[in-house]
Amino acid sequence: MFLFPLLSILFTLTPLIHAQNNTIPLHNNQIGSYNLSLNLHQTFYFQSNQAASLLAKRSSAVFLTITTCTQPQSSTKEPVPALQLFVSSTNPLPSASNHDPISYVQQPGYLAWNTTDITRVWITVAAPASGSLQGQWSYELGFSTSALMHPLYPPNQLATLDDTDTTHALFLSTPYLTSTNFSLTPLLTTSVPAELNASYCAAVLHNVASTANVTLANRSSLQPSYAQQQIMVGNLSLGQSYAVYFAQSQPNNVRALQLPFQIQTKSDPRCRLIYQLPFCNNVAYSVLANASLDIWNVTLSYDTNANTLYEPFASAISQFNCHSTQYSLVRNCSDCERDYKRWLCSVAIPRCTDPPADSSEVATYPYPAGTARSSWIQTTYAPNGYTEFLPCIDLCYQVVQSCPPFLQFNCPTDDLAALQYGYWLPGHSPTCNRLDLDPSLLVISRASPRWIVSPLSYLAFVSAWLLCHFL
Ligand SMILES: *[C@@H]1O[C@H](CO)[C@@H](O)[C@H](O)[C@H]1NC(C)=O
Ligand SMILES: *[C@@H]1O[C@H](CO)[C@@H](O)[C@H](O)[C@H]1NC(C)=O
Ligand SMILES: *[C@@H]1O[C@H](CO)[C@@H](O)[C@H](O)[C@H]1NC(C)=O
Ligand SMILES: *[C@@H]1O[C@H](CO)[C@@H](O)[C@H](O)[C@H]1NC(C)=O
Ligand SMILES: *[C@@H]1O[C@H](CO)[C@@H](O)[C@H](O)[C@H]1NC(C)=O
Ligand SMILES: *[C@@H]1O[C@H](CO)[C@@H](O)[C@H](O)[C@H]1NC(C)=O
Ligand SMILES: *[C@@H]1O[C@H](CO)[C@@H](O)[C@H](O)[C@H]1NC(C)=O
Ligand SMILES: *[C@@H]1O[C@H](CO)[C@@H](O)[C@H](O)[C@H]1NC(C)=O
Ligand SMILES: *[C@@H]1O[C@H](CO)[C@@H](O)[C@H](O)[C@H]1NC(C)=O
Ligand SMILES: *[C@@H]1O[C@H](CO)[C@@H](O)[C@H](O)[C@H]1NC(C)=O
Ligand SMILES: *[C@@H]1O[C@H](CO)[C@@H](O)[C@H](O)[C@H]1NC(C)=O
After folding, report:
1. Helix 295-318 crosses helix 333-348 at what angle (to 10 degrees)?
2. Which of 8, 31, 175, 441 could potentially form a cystine with 226 if both were Cys, beta carbons 3.0 to 4.6 Å apart?
3. How confident is the model at residue 187 (pLDDT cuts 50, 70, 90)?
4. What is the distance of C-alpha 272 from the center of its chain?
C-alpha cells in the first residue's frame, strides 16, 4: 500500500539527479579536493542508505565541512570573499535564490554544517564574482554521516608552547591515554592569508617547519595510563613570529586542526632551549649558554650543578624523621622534597629571555655585563649581560608551606621579593616562570608590580641569599 508511492517517487527522482551531469555524489567519511573559478559553482549530492531496502530507516545525519586551501589574488586591499554554501533537500541545483535556510558555522576559510534526519540533499559550493580578483579557489570538502571531517580545536587544547630560542620552538601536548594513537603535526606558518586563518589545508600549504623531534615528556606526575609528548621544531629564523597550528589525523580519515597561536623566536643567541634534564625534569625553557657549545653538554652542566646544590637539603631532610613527625595537617616530606626541588631548579637554572618590550608586565631582570644570578653561571658561561625571566614567587611560598619548620626556609618580602621573583597575571602570556606548578596555585599579581630595582642592591641580596641557602 505505502510502498508504491515511495517507489514511484524514487524512480522519478533518479533522472533528476543525473540530469545535472556534473553533480558529484558524496560518500561517507570522505574528503575530496576541488578547484573553482570565479563565478562558477559545483554541486554535490547525497542520498542516505541507497543500497538498503526501502523498509529500513532511510534518513541519516549529515556532517559537512569546507576548508579553503587557496584563493584568487585580489588587486585591491579588500579581503577576498569567502566561498558560499547553498543546500537544498528538494532542488537539484541549490543557488543564492533557491535554497533551504540553514545555519552553519563560519570561520576564516572554513564552513561547517550538520543536520539530522536527511534522506537526500544537494549541496552547491559557489565562487563569488568580483572584478578585482584573478585566479581560482581550491578547497577540500569533507562529508560524513557521523562526525565533522575537519573538527577545529581552540588554541592550547591539544598542545601548548614551552619556550623558543633563536632557531627552535618546544611544544608540550596535553596528556592523552597511552592506549590511543596520539600524533600531532606542528604547522608553523608566516603567511596564511587572514581569510583562510581556520583552514587545515591552507595551514599545511604554508607550513615552514621541518620534521619535528617528538619525545615522551617526563614532567610533573601524570595520572597512571596517561602520557605527554614534547615536540621540538628546529630550523626556525631568528626574531621571527610564527602562527602555530597543530594538525591531528584521527580515525576515519578525520583531519583535526588546533587553531593558531602566535610565537616569537628569540633574538639573543645565548638563550638556548634545553629539556629532558635527568634531575630537573620539569625544566623545559631557554637558559644562558654560549652559542657554540653542544646543547646536551649545556643541559648536563646545568642539571649537574642543580643536583649538587640539592645535596645539603637532601641530607638535612633525611635526618628528620618524616614518618613519625607530623609537622602539618596537609603536607608531608614528599611535598617538601617536590617543592624544594622545583624551587631549586628554578633558581639554579635561571630562564633566559630577550629584553621585554613592556617590562611592566613580564617579570624580568636585566643583568649587566660581568654579572649573573650565581657565581657558577658567571664562571661557567661568563655572560656579557643578559635578561632573566624570573621565577614565580609561588615556587618559594610552596616550599615554606610544605617543609618542616626546622629547615627555616623563608621567602623575601616587599621590594626584595619583587626583585627576585615575579607574580602571575591571569589572562596574559606567562608573566613569570612557574615550571610545572599548577596555575591555580599561583598568587595573583599586585596592581602595579615593580620588577626593576637597582641592579646593585639586587646582587647584594642574591649573594647573601645564595650563602644562606647553599653553603
Ligand atoms: C552534460 O555534459 C555534456 C558533456 O560532458 C554536455 O554536452 C551537456 O550539455 C551536459 N548536460 C547538462 C544538462 O549539463
Ligand atoms: C586545481 O588546480 C591546480 C592548478 O591549476 C592543479 O594543479 C590541480 O591539479 C587542480 N586540482 C583539482 C582537484 O582539479
Ligand atoms: C551541529 O550544528 C549545530 C547547529 O548549527 C551546532 O550547534 C553543533 O555544534 C553542530 N555540531 C557539530 C558536531 O559541529
Ligand atoms: C594504532 O595504529 C596502529 C597502526 O596504524 C594500529 O595497528 C593500531 O590498531 C592503532 N591503535 C589504536 C589504539 O588505535
Ligand atoms: C587567526 O586566528 C587566531 C585564533 O583563532 C586569532 O587569534 C588571530 O587573530 C587570527 N588572525 C587573523 C589574521 O585573522
Ligand atoms: C634545516 O634546513 C636545512 C636547509 O634548509 C636543511 O638542509 C636541513 O635538513 C634542515 N634540518 C632539519 C632537521 O630539517
Ligand atoms: C631528538 O631528541 C632527542 C632528545 O633530545 C635526541 O636524543 C635525538 O637525537 C633527537 N633526534 C633527532 C633526529 O634529532
Ligand atoms: C623522570 O624524572 C624523575 C625525576 O628526575 C626521575 O626520577 C625518573 O627516573 C624519570 N623517569 C624517566 C622515565 O625518565
Ligand atoms: C661535551 O663535554 C665533554 C666533557 O666536558 C667534552 O669532552 C666533549 O667534547 C663535549 N662535547 C661537545 C660536542 O662539545
Ligand atoms: C605524603 O602524602 C601522600 C598523600 O597525600 C602520600 O602518597 C605519600 O606517601 C606521603 N609521603 C610520605 C613521606 O609520607
Ligand atoms: C663563553 O663565552 C665567553 C665570552 O665569549 C667566554 O669567556 C667563556 O669562556 C665561554 N664559555 C665556554 C664554556 O665556552
Report:
1. 140
2. 175
3. very high
4. 20
Cβ neighbours of residue 8 under 8 Å, at least 6 residues apart?
none
Q: What is the DSSP letter of 116?
A: E
Instruction: Write out the H or E segment, with its range, that includes residue 50.
Output: none
Residue 461 confidence class, pLDDT cut points 50, 70, 90: very low
d(CA 396, CA 137): 56
Whether the CB-CB separation of 66 and 95 falls below 8 Å is answered with no
Amino acid sitting at position 328: S
Q: Is 30 helix (H, G, I), strand (E, B) or coil?
A: strand
pLDDT digits (tens, 9 = 90+) for 125-163: 999 988 889 999 999 999 999 999 999 999 999 999 999
pLDDT tens-place string over residues 259-290: 999 999 999 999 999 999 999 999 999 999 99
Expressed in angstroms and rounded, the spacing between residue 278 Cα and the centre of ligand 8 is 7
Rounded CA gap, 150 and 141, in Å? 9
DSSP, res 194: G
Q: What single-letter amino acid sits at 67?
A: T
Whether pLDDT at 228 is above 80: yes
What the chain holds in terms of domains, given with CATH numbers, is: 17-48+58-149 (2.60.120.380), 153-264 (2.60.40), 271-470 (no CATH)
pLDDT value of residue 59? 78
Contact call for residues 411 and 339 (beta carbons, < 8 A): no
Q: Which atom of ligand 8 is nearest to the CA of 218?
A: 1
Angle at which helix 394-402 crosses helix 333-348, to 10 degrees, equals 150
Q: Which of 90, 194, 190, 109 is nearest to 152 (CA)?
A: 109
Residues in the ligand 4 pocket, defined by CB under 6 Å: 179-181
- Please state the pTM of the whole predicted model: 0.87
| H, E, C per residue of 164-179 | ECCCCEEEEECCEECC
Q: Distance from the CA of 203 to the center of ligand 6, in angstroms?
A: 20
Tell me the sheet residues that pair with 213: 232
Nearest CA to ligand 3 atom 3: 114
Tell me: the pLDDT tens digits for 369-402? 888 889 999 999 988 899 999 999 999 999 999 9
Which helix (H) or strand (E) covers residue 431, if one does?
none
- Measured from the CA of 32, which atom of ligand 2 is nearest? 13
Contact (Cβ atoms closer than 8 angstroms) between residue 112 and residue 64: yes
Residue 84 has pLDDT above 90, yes or no: yes
